[in-house]
Write a structure and sequence with these properties.
The chain is of the alpha/beta class. The chain has 12 helices and 24 strands. Helix 4 crosses helix 5. The radius of gyration is 23 Å and the shape is globular. Bound molecules: alpha-L-arabinofuranose (AHR).
């Protein structure tokens, strides 16, 4: 089936024939540049993410602070704009006080979200130091599970107040004279989840968030506060939770969180790669639905404030989800959630990147979950760090997507899929375009970037781009991620089984036709004149 539209008719594209997908690229959709925080990441005290991932004192790969220099190098090079920390489920049982002050006095505790041993040798101040080192901004999470509003507010005071109060002076006594000035904060994590330590009802949570947020703003009026939204579209109270929470705390918060994990399971996709690669459309819909709830409550409250969205956990995650993969069995730095990503996972991650960018007018923050070792594009061992397949689409977006998101009108042939009635029920639309494309324009820098997913498993697809008001003058880079085996993955022994390949680009100009390999994600960086 072919999606139809007036632009198609205008350029005389014959309906019903097999032909190239087409995209008309015109004036940017966003008035200002998109917020690069939409390409952020997440790091939790979970498994080997922090310990032996970021922090491994004594390792020949670590610096004098115990930070893994190879990991620092990778993340610095990626240019991750913001990193959410320390959880996740972990945060709902975390006492931030255990992780500050002299290291030899910090307690070792039994961490109850993942049943692991937490030594607290890496805590808030180490994280802030590490963030400065890799050039990223911290997004701190607060404990709304076992934690009180009082301790959450104290955490803000510890981090952000200059001096002269109990908690700011405590920070200074720990060797940090200047405040950390953390601007973005999550008011808890997935508080609707029965798995969450201290799970709350929506209105209870909303009232706690409102009370804590009001006090926090007394401590620091510049905060940007994120309320916990539904932890997934499959939650029984999905959207109802969000509405009730916001009815309680709309005036005190700035954004609301969205989370989603996707998997190629029998139940969701019947192991069909064609269905799997369409799952980013589910993310598009979740964004629209949560935005609609925000706007509804805005209307109810006659508020002039429009909330933004924080998609602060998203990824593929379906293999390491049970048994020993999620139970630390009272070990220190156990191997948890160590998902091995293959080519088809990477293609879908490319789709998620496209979805986040095209919704950047509403989604201010996005965090790939997670960054190192646990469901992560980067994996460490004692000898170094490995880039999994999913590293590449994420790295491309960070490197090339700049400026404003272009307003695209895309026409593509579609393929049918049938609904499963489960999470990721993207198939309500039941027709999926073969080609998914998004583009950005950095006018002052004179560059554009086009990110293209070809969901066609069998055949090459052409994508004809037609530019209005913008003239590409040169192709600066054109790379693709593809391969014969969708199940191929990288290992320390074979680190480049799934890796970018150069793709022959079309000649730059106002009409350009890319030949997208079957099962591929492609990036083109263009020099432009406008
Ligand atoms: O990222 C892994 C876990 O997934 C997080 O701890 C939690 O917030 C989510 O359920």
């Amino acid at each position: 089936m072919l999606a139809t539209g007036s632009w198609l008719d205008a350029i005389g594209y014959a309906q019903g024939t097999r032909g190239p997908a087409r995209a008309l690229l015109q004036q940017p959709r966003l008035r200002g540049d998109f917020d690069r925080r939409v390409l952020g990441a997440f790091l939790e005290h979970l498994g080997r993410a922090i310990y032996t991932g970021l922090y491994q004192p004594g390792s020949p790969l670590a610096d004098t602070n115990g930070f893994r220099a190879d990991v620092v190098r990778e993340i610095k090079e990626l240019g991750v704009p913001i990193i959410r920390y320390p959880g996740g489920n972990f945060v709902s049982g975390y006492n931030w006080l255990d992780g500050v002050g002299p290291k030899q006095q910090r307690p070792t505790v039994l961490e109850r979200a993942w049943n692991s041993i937490e030594t607290n040798q890496f805590g808030t101040n180490e994280f802030i130091d590490w963030c400065r080192m890799v050039g990223t901004e911290p997004l701190l999470g607060m404990n709304f599970g076992t934690g009180t509003a009082e301790m959450a507010v104290a955490y803000v005071e510890y981090c952000n107040l200059e001096r002269g109060t109990k908690w700011s002076d405590l920070r200074r006594s720990h060797g940090y004279d200047s405040p950390h000035n953390v601007r973005y904060w999550c008011l808890g994590n997935e508080m609707d989840g029965p798995w969450q330590i201290g799970q709350l009802q929506a209105r209870e949570y909303g009232r706690k968030a409102r009370d804590a947020a009001r006090q926090m703003r007394v401590v620091d009026p510049n905060l940007q506060l994120i309320a916990c939204g539904s932890s997934g579209t499959n939650m029984p109270q999905y959207l109802i939770w969000d509405r009730e929470v916001l009815e309680e705390c709309y005036d005190q918060v700035d954004g609301i969180s969205l989370h989603a994990y996707y998997g190629n399971t029998q139940a969701l996709t019947r192991n069909s790669a064609a269905r799997y690669l369409a799952m980013n459309l589910d993310m598009d819909r979740q964004i629209l639905e949560i935005a609609a709830v925000c706007d509804y409550v805005q209307g109810l409250r006659r508020s002039s404030k429009r909330l933004w969205l924080s998609f602060d956990e998203w990824n593929v995650w379906y293999r390491a989800r049970s048994g020993d993969a999620v139970n630390g069995r009272r070990q220190f730095a156990p191997k948890l959630l160590e998902e091995v990503y293959n080519l088809e996972d990477a293609l879908l991650v490319g789709g998620f990147v496209n979805t986040l960018l095209r919704n950047a007018a509403r989604v201010r923050i996005g965090c790939i979950a997670q960054l190192v070792n646990a469901i992560a594009p980067l994996v460490t061992n004692d000898t170094g760090v490995l880039r999994q397949s999913t590293f590449f689409p994420y790295a491309w977006a960070l490197r090339y997507a700049r400026g404003r998101v272009l307003d695209l009108r895309v026409e593509s042939e579609t393929y049918p899929i049938t609904a499963t009635g489960l999470q990721a029920d993207f198939a309500r639309n039941d027709q999926v375009p073969f080609v998914d494309v998004v583009a950005t324009l950095d006018s002052p820098g004179g560059q554009a970037c086009v990110l293209m997913l070809n969901r066609d498993l069998e055949g090459e697809r052409e994508l004809a781009l037609e530019w209005r008001d913008i003239t590409p003058t040169r192709v600066l880079a054109c790379e693709t991620l593809t391969g014969a085996d969708l199940k191929a993955f990288n290992t320390f022994e074979q680190p480049r089984r799934v890796a970018p390949q150069r793709l022959d680009p079309p000649v730059a100009g106002t009409r350009m036709t890319f030949k997208l390999p079957p099962r591929s994600y492609t990036i083109a960086q263009l020099a432009t004149m406008s």
